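>> received
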Amino acid sequence: GSATALVASMSAAGDALGVANLGDSGARQVRWLGQGHASVVAKTADQQHSFNCPYQLSRLPTPEDFPKLMAEGKSALVKAVQRCRNQRHDQPEDADLYTFQVQEGDLFVLGTDGVFDNLHDSEVCEILQNRVASSMLSEEPASAIAAAAAAADQCSASNAIAKAAAQRVAAACPTDLADALARGAQRRAADGAARTPFMQTAKEAGVQHVGGKMDDITVVVAWVTGSD
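>> returned
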């Protein structure tokens, strides 16, 4: 079998997220820029050999496996492996490496191609904004939180307000945000008239495609939070 791969790890200092991406899964760094407005400030890029043929890690049968496969009636698989024996296969070191500088309140969305082939970045942000806004309705006002933070930390009022805003935004459950994105991507994948990123990419490659793309949809969402 074969699969794309995306691995992320926070630095020991907590100021940067390292990402290794191989294939067409992706990561988006989302930041709240004021007035509840979310924006993608950094992202990974797809790795494609050609249209809809992403880099993938694979494990193919070896010649030692051929007798057993032949006995199981899998001669077609053996012949296919033999035909591509001399072809170069994608390796972990082919992954693109990224370093995202982070700040408290940033949100990272990691997803498979079924997410980002069906949702534009602006739509990802819109879904997140709506869910975060609804979760903040029951939160304590930012001014009150800021006053408490300023008194406890003896920091400036502006820093306290910024910290309070980040904490209020990050109160939204990441599981709920991931679920909302997955459901949004699923609806768009089933929409035969949607203008999707995959439709745009297909057009650029000279391929006719209209609507969403049915594919695997997996989403992981994580907030960047302070240590206190």
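>> The radius of gyration is 22 Å.
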